[in-house]
Here is the input.
Amino acid sequence: MCRLPATAAVDPGHETKRLLNGRRRQPKKKDLARKLLDLQTQIQTPPATSSPTPTPSPNPTIYGPPPSRPHHNLPALEASRFIGYDRQLIQLLKLLGDSHPAHRLGIQGIGGIGKTTLVLEAAYRCLLLEQFEAIVFTCAQRQRLVGDRLLRRVKRDRHLADILHTIARVLQYPHILAADFEVQVERIQDLLSHRRVLLIVDHPP
Here is the structure.
């Protein structure tokens, strides 16, 4: 048998090197077991997901959105055609327009000349054009003029409480009426400040 010197360089060859390197790179049993345990834990435990931050909903106004169509309680027009006050009607419609700054309008005249008819004609035209979100008609008159006759009214809004009741009913907020009278006044005022409302108060001259 021939012994090789200790200093002799022997090339083990490419295949031998690959096998030796593969042996050195094999993980130990403990390392392999730890990796398998970690992998099993990851499979059994779902990844923690943070709950999405809820998007705050827009803050609606206290009285909600305006109606799609104007609410109203206008009485029926007695005449099919309005005659005699065309100039006054045009002037009144201008005063009720968006460009006019006044919040209160008054129509004066002796009884029976057609003030209520003029107001109702203007109100119906505003209703047709949807200039207001609601039109509320209240009347304290005991009688109404129909043609050449005076007819007695079935219902009158004689007191402020009656007017508040009519406003709340037409604007569809009847729950306001369950409160005390002072609270009703405050809530009706607040409601009218959030709505574009034409309020008609027909009272005796």
